[in-house]
Amino acid sequence: MSGKDRIEIFPSRMAQTIMKARLKGAQTGRNLLKKKSDALTLRFRQILKKIIETKMLMGEVMREAAFSLAEAKFTAGDFSTTVIQNVNKAQVKIRAKKDNVAGVTLPVFEHYHEGTDSYELTGLARGGEQLAKLKRNYAKAVELLVELASLQTSFVTLDEAIKVTNRRVNAIEHVIIPRIERTLAYIITELDEREREEFYRLKKIQEKKKILKEKGEKDLEKRRAAGEVMEPANLLAEEKDEDLLFE
Amino acid sequence: MAGRGKLIAVIGDEDTVTGFLLGGIGELNKNRHPNFLVVEKDTTINEIEDTFRQFLNRDDIGIILINQYIAEMVRHALDAHRSIPAVLEIPSKEHPYDAAKDSILRRAKGMFTAEDLR
């Protein structure tokens, strides 16, 4: 990627037109990509802000959920082992949908409920209300976390997309366009030089012709003076024609 | 893609996992493998890493929740991982949330001005 290269092409008027068209195309492309990069960066910043807010909120929600867990443990005893053993089907699952921003598809998570609560009977002996509150808190936490996960994946995907787009913009701006401009300049200089050469050649030929002509005339003068030259008959001059018998 | 549901996995201490199971995310798949891991004091880092990688390879898991102090232990495995499934760091009872250690926010280090405004 040195700074001096240009596209190897035979310099002609058509090549010049082609290069001009290519330059125009490269500039349009660069502007479009810049716009895309700007749109993506805007969305990126929005998402980042949202992520930070949501994370702080999540910290608080988790804390509250942990408190209610401690409360429930205090009232209902240690139900952790029971809960862990009784796992069979999940009630909360997530779906991945695609969202589109300026041509980039972002995955978005959406949670949905399915089936019944397998822990309905857990708090039946004691601490049922604390357990219910606990379940609600953690359900809320799960919803928030699903949203956070969506934001996070969008964040990462956008980050990659922005890097790629910026790389392309820079490539066009610093490599492609200068290369085309150099080629164009080269073609123009070649064409100009060729014109100058043509011009020079023509002038030289004219000079040579002039010299030859002058030389020819001088010769003619000399021969005329020496009387060797026969003037060809002039049809337009009035003279007696010998072939006519009756005049 | 919208039809098949994906699961939420949890890697955390006993309290965290219990709480989330009560929230309704726990499931055993066909081979009786759970989508959660309870990390105790004697769980080795290798076990945690193995389970994490297993979760990554399973295609029915969409999100992995992991306690932040555990995430610290397997930070290298976390950082090498990219997008699907999403990995979320959550605080635990003893270790409240620390934004500086979150692997996602660290990637956006240059744009932390929004954070400073809080």
- Which class best fits the helix and strand makeup of chain B? alpha/beta
Helix count of chain A equals: 3
Q: Count of helices of chain B?
A: 6
C-alpha end-to-end distance of chain B = 38 Å
Q: Please, what is the average pLDDT of chain A? A: 86
Name the beta content range of chain A. Answer: 5-15%
Identify the overall geometry of chain B. globular
Largest interface: A-B, 59 and 50 residues
How many E-type strands of chain A? 2
Helix coverage percent of residues of chain B? 25-40%
Shape of chain A: rod-shaped
Helix content of chain A: 55-70%
Low-confidence stretches of chain A: none
Round the Cα radius of gyration of chain A to an integer and report it.
46 Å
Characterize the largest beta sheet of chain A: strand count, sense, and whether it forms a barrel: 2 strands, antiparallel
Any overview of this molecule?
The complex is a heterodimer of chains A (247) and B (118). Chain A is mainly alpha-helical and 247 residues long. Helices cover 68% and strands 8% of the residues of chain A. In chain A, a hairpin with a 2-residue loop joins strand 1 (92-101) and strand 2. The model of chain A has no long low-confidence stretch (mean pLDDT 86). Chain B is an alpha/beta fold and 118 residues long. Chain B starts with 6 loop residues before the first strand and ends with a helix. The mean pLDDT of chain B is 76. At the A-B interface, helix 1, helix 2, strand 1, strand 2 and helix 3 of A face helix 1, strand 3, strand 4 and helix 5 of B. Chain B: GO terms for molecular function: proton-transporting ATPase activity, rotational mechanism. Chain B: Its main location: membrane.
